[in-house]
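Hi W.,

Here's what went into the run:
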Amino acid sequence: MTLVLAAAEHSGRVLSVAIFGLILAITLAISFVGWRRIRTASDYWSAGRQISGPQNGLAMAGEFLSAAAFLGVSGLMFMDGFDGYLTGIAALCSFVPLLLLLAERMRNAGKFTMTDVLAFRLREGPARVAVAGTTLCIAAFYVIAQSVAAGALFEALVGIPYWVSVLVTVAAMLSYIVLGGMIATTWVQIIKACLLLAGVSVMAIWILSRYGFNPVHLMDEATRKSGQGNAYNAPGALFKKPLDEISTGVAFVLGTCGLPHIMMRFLTVTDARAARRSVGWAVGLIGVFYLFVAVIGLGARAILGKGGEALAGKGGNLAAPYLAQHLGGGAGTTGGDIFFAIITAVAFATILAVVAGVVLAATGSVAHDLYGGVIRRGQASEQEEIRVARLAVVAIGAIGAVLALLAGKGFNVQLLTGLTFAVAASANFPSLLLTLTWRRFNTTGALAGVTVGLVTAIVLIVLSPPVWPGPDSQGAPFPLGNPAIVSIPAGFIACVLGTVLSTADSRARERYEELTVRAETGIGAEVATH
Amino acid sequence: MSPQNGNPDWRALEASEEFGELRATRRRFVIGNLVVFALAVGGFLVCTGYARDFMGKSVYGSLTVGYVWLLGLTALTWAIAWGYLRFATRQLGPTSDAIARKATDGRR
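Here's what came out:
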């Protein structure tokens, strides 16, 4: 911490670091409590299935509302108005398919990871390897997106070098997971969700109070300051191509249904009823959150004006913290310093918590799916799986740190997250849905779907304008910034073709009956420990 | 993953009338709501791509058709979630509990 303090020069910066240090201390203390409560694998990965619906709803909101949702969406709205809000609301909408199609079934049929549900009917080895692979890819994308935010935030705002903030993020995340597993991760999410919701609501109400609590006045002022006229309130400012706008929207609407760390949350609750209630809570909280974030994004434009653009950075990610500074009284004032410090620290806590959740899911893939399920073929003891998990966290953390250090900083984090959602929706969602609903579905279909979905999404991302090298990405072979509109159908088609073209799999067919009965009724579902 | 204390006969359960009814009830609700949802979201996305002038029309000051539609989608998400929770608690829960009790002699 001394290095960090030395790097922070101004009082506001010291304050930021101090508040962040406090959050860090509290969350680490929770990890130690978690450490003492972990006895079984169910404690480690599923918090003993003791989490209640409302608690899990908060934790799910915490897991879902990343730096992208806060800094990214407010930054996009600041720059491009309407299109920024679209990405947020599309992400909120994703909870409808999640609730109607997957939530309770995941709870009833799953054990520790999302992959368990697939491995139930299908040949275990191939199914686990495939989905573990996509989980690790998704984790890598997520860690990059979140670290870009962490690095940009701390380098620009607090003067801490990028590599230090990456190392602090990874080290803190490691201790939560190695020590406290899902128990600690859940409580870190809950605390972070409360901090984040409190932070954005104070900011939003403060902004609205300047406009007589009339949101339309705020919008009028933001539109005037944007200099874009009515285009600021219409689609097209950010996504020039119509298909680009639609494809990004589709990625957000379906992406949550394939995110391994969100799926894993359903396995921590007491029963199916708690699983669906937790979605209800999450949807309520996240919807309110985006309303507040819209006010913050528009407020940044109305209050900071054109001058804010230089401060907010190329991706617009820093609009919210600078707005907080301005609201508190401006740079150099005590009020400005305090509010700036609080919002920066909350944003950093957000990043930490999300990275912890994602890496925990990746660890589940390595230790439970690959090591326990494939290498040891189900013969590993629970203690052994937990030991491997703890080792895997360290390895994944190290890889994540390297990737984050290599990644660029000019991207808007919400758009990076959109790519993650596209990968999740293309690779995982088709197989997960079909294994729960289609009697004929088999291993070949699942492998084809997962592989084609994953490869299509990643190849198209590499060939797309944001990634393709060269000035202004001229001549990128794939025209859209987000591949979802092509890669999700590709995943589904591959699932169907793979199934239809291969011979019927009698085991998959027989186990379908068991899986659906279990998923719908909860017979034989994993129960809470203690 | 083997169920505790003796396997229920999954095939018979799956083919049973009660289970068929449970699944049909759930399917009706889910498909109905997903159709509404898909029309609202799909229509919205298509309009943002190909009816940008319409989406940019002012309803009241800077509040455009597009923004109103986005707020509507928030409300729709809340409404579907709330409706499903009510439906599941009142109609699915009792039936699925009854099936589970019968199949496992109240053990589960």
